[in-house]
Specification:
Helix content of chain B: over 70%
Largest sheet of chain B: 2 strands, antiparallel
Radius of gyration of chain B: 21 Å
Number of helices of chain A: 7
Helix content of chain A: over 70%
Order of helices and strands of chain A: HHHHHHH
Number of domains of chain A: 1
Structural class of chain A: mainly alpha
Shape of chain A: globular
Largest interface: A-B, 50 and 51 residues
Number of strands of chain B: 2
Oligomer: heterodimer
Number of strands of chain A: 0
Structural class of chain B: mainly alpha
Distance between the termini of chain B: 29 Å
Distance between the termini of chain A: 58 Å
Strand content of chain B: under 5%
Radius of gyration of chain A: 18 Å
Largest sheet of chain A: none
Strand content of chain A: under 5%
Order of helices and strands of chain B: HHEEHHHHHHHHHHHHHHHHH
Shape of chain B: globular
Chain lengths: 225, 487
């Protein structure tokens, strides 16, 4: 597959897929919370652009609504909320030392290969472009999980959580030209409510353990103490 | 279709009412009324389906057939009985100073929110909306798990939120793949409708659907509490208020399993292989055995029964995986009797914990001497859930064993072993709690045990003789899922 032989829309989508994947890796290795949130906002912006391009080239008007929703939620509201939380708790001065950073990055790379491997059977029925798009979305999801495993701060967990949503959204836009409108509105509503609930939780966690380090929450387990 | 709309509107009105109303003393009673009207509406819906068969709304957004209609009635019934229990229980918790009036308002509003999400999962015909409603159920209950605001409850709620959120994201990826397979054969807006997908299931791309099912099973399986995705379940059940544990165990787990089975019907139609069934059997058997083993080392009474839920959900998943008319019939029956028994047990457990002032099992002693109704309720509930005859759980477990012996004889061994381990695990804890002398400072509480008696009575009835119309109903649902009737 030669990228130059594809039409312009496909070329744009493929580049966007690569960039979205790249932002996931950038987040994975990021120890500073403010930068993490910034990269997350950029990932949201890339998604907005992808949606807008898809809406324009497919002439599908409801995708414009999705683009506006993504812009409002993933680029403005959620990053703003997280940034405010970081500044309020003075966490922007700390750099989280990530344990096994090399291993985590290598793990991330293998997750990406794994995504291609999992989705390979569908290449028989579709274009290689679709395989790339779906595999990148799956790896963005898996990298989001890895981000949550490797970071300790609750804020990083929320970024990971939302970046998993980003991966799903990318798959929905590229592979299926957007879900039916009612589903997309429902998902956007769920994301909004989840974001508000996360805000409430930051408050509760801080008042309960006086920190946002979720490793300190270890009271409930099956190990005898 | 009108009753389905009425049902959704009632619960929506409930959310708004409790959200906006001032602090009233009788909110618990009003909640009972809301759920009572919901139950009447669902019976109206059930009669419609009984007389006219499957109902599909004009815009195809809602579908009620013999499979989901009985779950809808069950949901409304358990919603009602739990609300009857919860009114005095929550009032007592407020007297103890564990709650403020504002949080009580949140509790009742989100109780209705959870019921709305459950009804939407069950009635919708759109697989995407089903996902949205399932996520909505998490969002509605997550603040209820942390209602007491103790460090433990906040930890449990955070775990619940993150694990279920991430887990269910997998189900959305599965749904997207399903949609991707569907748009290749149909038009966009209708492509996620279950009725359309089911009709054209054999044209769907089998490779894509196989991958999709793995994601759907892992995603909804997190909500069912399948091992190894179960970690949130004991925490959320033990730290939240007890009425919440009752509806989570009795309803949420069932409805998540319902979502998996709906998807499995599509995948089976597309692939003509037993891949989906094998996956469910594997996950189910693992959950069943791990849940049974973990029963032994529990210290908290609500954690004990959450592991019992994991064990039973594993058994149902296994039975649906085995497929075939007999196993499917048994799984449907087991869903009913498990929901009824488990919610009854959580009601008694809630009272037992209030009597003893703690959830630690080594501190709860001599319940029969302290308050006979609670002691006997807990004992009979445990006997029922452990699968003793003549209760309904025995019938359904026996049918599962029979079906397994028929299709996979060598798997009967781990099943029997698991049932034995679970029995021992439950009774070693329950026996000292109900018998023995009454310890100092353990006093009876005001308790309403009607829900328990009604639930256990129904389970007993189902164990002795399944009424004709219900058996007919189960067999219709079995025909829908498995293709032929067991009767």
């Amino acid at each position: 597959m030669n990228i130059e032989s594809q039409d312009l829309y496909t070329q744009i989508i493929l580049s966007m897929a690569a960039l979205v994947g790249l932002t996931s890796f950038l987040m994975l290795g990021q120890g500073r919370l403010l930068r993490l949130i910034f990269v997350f906002a950029i990932q949201g912006l890339l998604l907005t652009l992808t949606t807008a391009v898809a809406a324009y080239s497919l002439g599908n008007h409801h995708l414009y609504i999705s683009a506006v929703l993504t812009l409002a939620l993933k680029v403005i509201f959620i990053p703003w909320m997280l940034r405010r939380e970081v500044l309020k708790t003075n966490m922007h001065r700390d750099v989280e030392t990530l344990a096994n950073q090399t291993a985590v990055m290598l793990g991330g790379a293998s997750l990406m290969v794994f995504s291609y491997y999992v989705l390979h059977p569908i290449v028989q029925t579709t274009s290689p472009v679709m395989l790339n798009a779906l595999a990148v979305s799956l790896s963005v999801m898996l990298l989001g999980m890895l981000l949550m495993i490797s970071h300790k701060q609750a804020i990083a967990h929320v970024v990971g959580f939302m970046s998993i949503e980003n991966g799903l959204f990318f798959a929905a836009i590229v592979a299926t030209k957007g879900m039916p409108m009612v589903v997309e509105l429902g998902i956007a509503f769920d994301v909004l409510v989840a974001a508000v609930l996360f805000g409430i939780f930051f408050f509760h966690i801080r008042s309960s353990i006086d920190s946002l380090d979720v490793d300190l929450m270890n009271k409930l387990n099956e190990v005898d103490k | 279709m009108i009753p389905a709309y009425v049902l959704l509107l009632i619960t929506l009105a409930g959310i708004v009412f409790f959200g906006l109303s001032g602090h009233k003393a009788d909110m618990g009673k009003i909640n009972v009324w809301f759920n009572g009207v919901s139950l009447i509406t669902t019976i109206w819906l059930a009669i419609n389906v009984f007389n006219h068969g499957t109902i599909l709304s004009a815009d195809k957004a809602f579908l009620v057939d013999s499979f989901n209609v009985y779950l809808i009635v069950l949901t409304a019934f358990i919603g009602l009985t739990t609300s009857i229990f919860s009114a005095p229980y929550m009032a007592h918790e407020k007297e103890l100073g564990k709650l403020t009036a504002n949080r009580l308002k949140l509790y009742y509003s989100m109780y209705q929110g959870f019921m709305l999400a459950m009804y939407l999962v069950l009635t919708t015909n759109n697989m995407g909306v089903m996902w949205v409603a399932m996520e909505g159920a998490t969002l509605a209950t997550v603040l209820l798990v942390s209602l007491y605001r103790t460090p433990e409850s906040i930890e449990a709620a955070w775990k619940y939120f993150i694990l279920c959120g991430v887990g269910i994201a997998q189900a959305l990826f599965g749904t997207i793949l399903l949609y991707y397979a569907a748009v290749q054969i149909g038009d966009g807006e209708n492509a996620l409708l279950w009725s359309e997908l089911f009709q054209h299931a054999n044209q769907l791309n089998p490779e894509v659907l196989e991958i999709a099912f793995v994601f759907l099973l892992v995603g909804y399986g997190t909500k069912i509490g399948l091992v190894p995705l179960h970690n949130w379940l004991p925490d959320a059940h033990s730290e939240g208020p007890t009425p919440m544990s009752a509806v989570l165990s009795g309803l949420l787990l069932n409805d998540a399993l319902y979502a998996v089975v709906r998807n499995k019907m599509l995948v089976d139609g597309a692939t003509h292989s037993s891949m989906a069934g094998y996956l469910m059997m594997g996950f189910g058997l693992l959950s069943f055995l791990v849940g049974a083993l973990f029963l032994h080392r529990q210290k908290d009474i609500k954690r004990l029964f959450s592991y019992s839920s994991i064990e039973h959900m594993g058994l149902m998943t296994f039975a649906f995986g085995v497929g075939g008319p007999l196993a499917t019939f048994a799984a449907l029956l087991h869903m009913t009797v498990h929901s009824l028994t488990k919610s009854a047990i959580f009601v008694t457990v809630g009272h037992a914990a209030q009597v003893a002032g703690t959830q630690r099992m080594d501190k709860i002693r001599g319940l029969i001497k302290t308050q006979p109704k609670i002691g006997w309720g807990l004992l009979i509930g445990t006997i029922s859930i452990a699968g003793f005859p003549p209760f309904g759980v025995f019938t359904s477990e026996f049918l599962v064993l029979l079906a397994t012996m028929h299709s996979y004889p060598w798997l009967t061994l781990p099943l029997l072993l698991g049932i034995g381990i679970a029995f021992a695990g439950l009774f070693r804890h329950i026996q000292p709690m109900v018998y023995g002398e009454r310890p100092e400072g353990q006093n009876p509480v005001k308790a309403n045990l009607w829900p328990v008696m009604i639930h256990l009575g129904l389970v007993l009835w189902l164990g002795l003789a399944i009424p004709g119309f219900l058996a007919h109903w189960f067999s219709q649902a079995t025909v829908l899922i498995a293709g032929s009737s067991p009767l």
